[in-house]
Predict the structure.
Amino acid sequence: MNWLDAQEIISSFGDYALLAVTLIIFLETAFIPASFLPGDSLLFLMGLTLANSSSVLPDWLAFMLVWLAAFFGPQVSFYLGRRFGTGLFASNRKWLLNDKVLEKTNRFFNRYGARAVILARFVPILRSVVPVMAGASRMEADRFLRLNLIGTTLWLLAFMFPGYWLGGIDLIKENLELTVLTVIIVSALPLPIELIRESLSRQKAASARN
């Protein structure tokens, strides 16, 4: 099975698709080696599937299961970074993970903490990397939890809920690949927009000083 194809994953697991999606979402957000697994498209197609199929579980419970997986994945990633991150940085001074990178990461989260954790939700790979870095940089656990709650909810609102709402439209089902691609592109825009806004702000500040 092609583990990069969200549609194939859902089709292959059939009646157990919800359990498979729940597990995959947890793994994709919790562990960096699993960050290659689909996330955005899987949420969208799971929402669409719920709208067009019957299940022994009510739809609200299905949404809750996926939400819990999407929430606890980054929490696990955060605590792994908190538990092992600092030692990993300190013991790899000649590698990518060194104390200089840790210092830069600390400055990064001090400046962009809230936006970084929330916006990373919409970027593959960063979903699992940013929580580890947040834990390694000693971000407050309560603060990360609050940001994770917001990020998890926004993520499902951006992908799974639209899939569910659009699931009954024939035009959407007939152009599924294009719909998924459009949703992913539009939902990934917040991060580049934020980076551009930050860059323009720095240029404006620099011009004001000159």
About this structure: The chain has one domain: 6-209. The radius of gyration is 19 Å.
